[in-house]
Amino acid sequence: MHGFGVKSSMSDIRSSDDSNEVKCALCGKGLSVGSNGLDKPEQVVINGTHYFFDSKDCSTMFKRFWSVYGNKFNEILTQENSISNSLWNTVIPGEKEIADIERGDLDSDVVKTIRDFRTVHRLSRDLMRSANEQILMMFSTPRSFHNDYVTGETTLSDIIDSRSSIQVRIITPTDEAVNEFTRRSKENRQTKNIEIRYILEALGTNITVFVVDRKYSLAIEMADNKGVKPYENLRTATFSNSKATAIMYISIFESLWKQAESIEQITNLTEKLRADKKIHNEFISVAAHELRSPVQPILGLAQLLRSRKEIGIRKQDELLAVIIRNAKRLMELTENILDVTRIDDQTLHLRKQPLCIDDLIANAVEDIRNQLDPNQKINLIHENPKKEFPLIADADRGRLTQVISNLISNAVKFTTEGTIIVTAERGAANLTVRVKDTGTGIASDIMPKLFEKFVTTSEGGIGLGLFISKSIIDAHGGTIWAGNNSGERGATFSFAIPIGISTKR
């Protein structure tokens, strides 16, 4: 687009005649200047050049233009006689200007008002295809975004041409269609550069704004949003390549982006609090049941022993064994709850020392073997415990024993009949322990959340053992994982810890 204004000097308006006619540099009205210097029009000197005006108002408005556009007045075509002639004759962009926009080789500021929806549709696509760095998009309704850029002949993914270097950020109200597009964008490697934030739908407005490469902006206002074709109900659109205009839209965009980000964080936090409350309530219910279960036989059998003194020694031993077993179970539940509190409060500390891992496994296997129910036909095996070189690792004795016992006990719960094999092996930098069973395996719906709090499918227990085990292994700087056995029944739980001294204490 051409610049604005006309410059004239006193030598320009003098001739051999006694009078010369010039025009107002703003409105183009003809002005007469006599040779005797009388009846001179209003004039302003800018950068050594005299500008003439019909009135004080015209000179004031011209100064305002100058303050905005500065030396770009020097780019005016010298044949133009006034600002008005060069400004108002270029309302609708032509084919060449749209091509110039796409190539990005405009020389001066352009402000265009467009009322043809086909031109707006083409221009919006060309603008985004011309992007080199960034596209910002603001929609007032989810339908406008979905109709124009999710469905149809040309989608947003087609427009950006899968160019990973271009950052695309979108602000829009949401609905099921927009949510589906967001989900597919996250899954699609070619559109991972698209970020979307959700805002509340604007009241009574149908305005879409694009900002490309922090320079080009296009604001589109619709009469309504019921048209089948993109922008079919166009009211008006304004295109500008003014950086100042783009920055104004960017400031609005960034403000809405931060607001949407805050709303998203609050929403996620609210959902998390709801989920935590649900888990907390379920935990209280399950924990109360699990704590009551061992308490009842302890109290009942203790009262029986107290009331029937004639019970024989052998019978007393049997009853005391049941009491002791339930007391240990009660103590284990209590310790697990305390451990979860320590983990959540980040007060779970390790006391590391060089340990023989095979010795820890042997002791854990023996303890659990002695606790097995006679009805469970389980063969519990510590495979190859006597190696030529002992497996030594720097670890917390009590905590690592707790992990190994948890994994073996977990295998016992899901293996009514079969074999449980515990093995340990040394790698280049890590020591790996595996517990393999031939039980029922891990359910597919449990697998993704296996090591989370309160996740269990067994009739007994409150789902803390694996969560605690993972936290202990994490504190050792190791990893823990599980999976169903390939081609056979059961599952295998494994963990690996560094052999040397870990930095996590």
Describe this entry's structure for a reader:
There is one protein chain. The protein has 4 domains: 10-85, no CATH class; 95-241, Endonuclease Chain A (Endonuclease, Chain A, 2-Layer Sandwich); 268-344, Helix Hairpins; 352-498, Heat Shock Protein 90, CATH 3.30.565.10. The chain is 42% helix and 21% strand. The protein has helices at residues 10-13, 56-69, 83-88, 95-103, 117-129, 142-150, 156-159, 176-187, 243-307, 313-344, 357-371, 397-413, 465-475; strands spanning 19-23, 30-34, 42-46, 49-53, 111-114, 134-138, 167-172, 194-198, 207-212, 216-222, 234-240, 352-356, 377-382, 392-396, 417-426, 430-437, 479-484, 491-498. Strands 5-11-10-9-6-7-8 form a 7-stranded mixed beta sheet, with helices on both faces. The protein has a 5-stranded mixed beta sheet with strand order 13-15-16-18-17. Strands 1-2 form a two-stranded antiparallel ribbon. The radius of gyration is 40 Å and the shape is elongated.
Shape: elongated
Q: Give the CATH H-level superfamily of the largest domain.
A: Endonuclease Chain A
Our count of helices gives 13
Q: For this entry, what is the oligomeric state of its chains? A: single chain
Rg, rounded, reads: 40 Å
The beta-strand count equals 18
Largest sheet: 7 strands, mixed
CATH architecture of the largest domain: 2-Layer Sandwich
Describe the strand arrangement of the main beta sheet, using strand numbers.
Answer: 5-11-10-9-6-7-8
Strand content: 15-25%
Query: Do you know the CATH topology of the largest domain?
Result: Endonuclease, Chain A
Structural class: alpha+beta
